[in-house]
Design brief:
- Helix content is 7%, strand content 33%.
- It is mainly β and 209 residues long.
- The chain has one domain.
Length: 209
């Protein structure tokens, strides 16, 4: 499973639901100047689709979210695909196929530290993909896998990691492939800092009843 300990500083005083959206966007390493809740992901009409399955292995009190970007190349325009906790995983959704897609796995810990993993790949119509992540040491690790054959899951063809030390959206030409091996290491980005006023309970609204 692809691993990383990528953690970014946040500067928002908004509720944690907004902070996680800000992390998903990762527009600025020093935080989001104008955070706002991300709209839900909606598959464009009339396009072929794949399935996106989301799983998180997180302790009680930790939360996670999965985002897809409107602008896949520049990691902009995050849309919330699903959010979960230690007792609930997001519902499987349809994912637009046939064009570049950038997916984020964002982990929010109960101690108000965060971790971001980001990949880009091109989904193939009719296939199923698994986004899976969780805690690993002082950071997090995760993967995107072609799960069309559950007995032989593998990295999607052409998939690349977009997050790296000092850059939350590595240019595609410089992004490293993750398809060559099941596990690749990440780099420690230092402690994430959340300002007072954030409450982890606020993200529960993203998870639903």
């Amino acid at each position: 499973m692809t691993q990383a300990s990528t953690r970014w500083p946040i500067g928002s005083r908004r509720a944690v639901g907004t902070i996680v959206v800000c992390m998903g966007a990762a527009v600025l390493l020093l935080g989001c100047a104008t955070p706002a809740k991300a709209p839900p992901y909606v598959v464009p009409a009339g396009v072929p689709t794949a399935k996106l399955v989301m799983r998180g292995a997180v302790p009680s009190g930790d939360l996670f979210g999965v985002f897809v970007h409107d602008d896949a190349q520049n990691c902009k325009g995050p849309r919330l695909v699903g959010a979960g906790n230690n007792t609930r995983n997001p519902t499987t959704v349809a994912l637009a196929a046939g064009s570049l897609t950038t997916v984020d796995f964002v982990l929010l810990r109960s101690n108000k530290t965060t971790c971001l993993l980001r990949w880009s790949f091109t989904p193939v119509a009719g296939k199923s993909y698994l986004v899976n992540g969780g805690m690993f040491g002082a950071g997090c690790r995760g993967s995107v896998l072609d799960a069309s054959n559950p007995d032989a899951m593998k990295a999607p063809e052409g998939i690349v990691r977009r997050d790296a030390k000092g850059d939350a959206c590595v240019a595609l030409a410089q992004a490293r492939s993750t398809a060559g091996g099941a596990t690749q290491g990440g780099q420690d980005q230092g402690a994430a800092v959340l300002r007072p006023g954030a409450n982890a309970d606020d993200l529960q609204g993203l998870i639903g009843p």
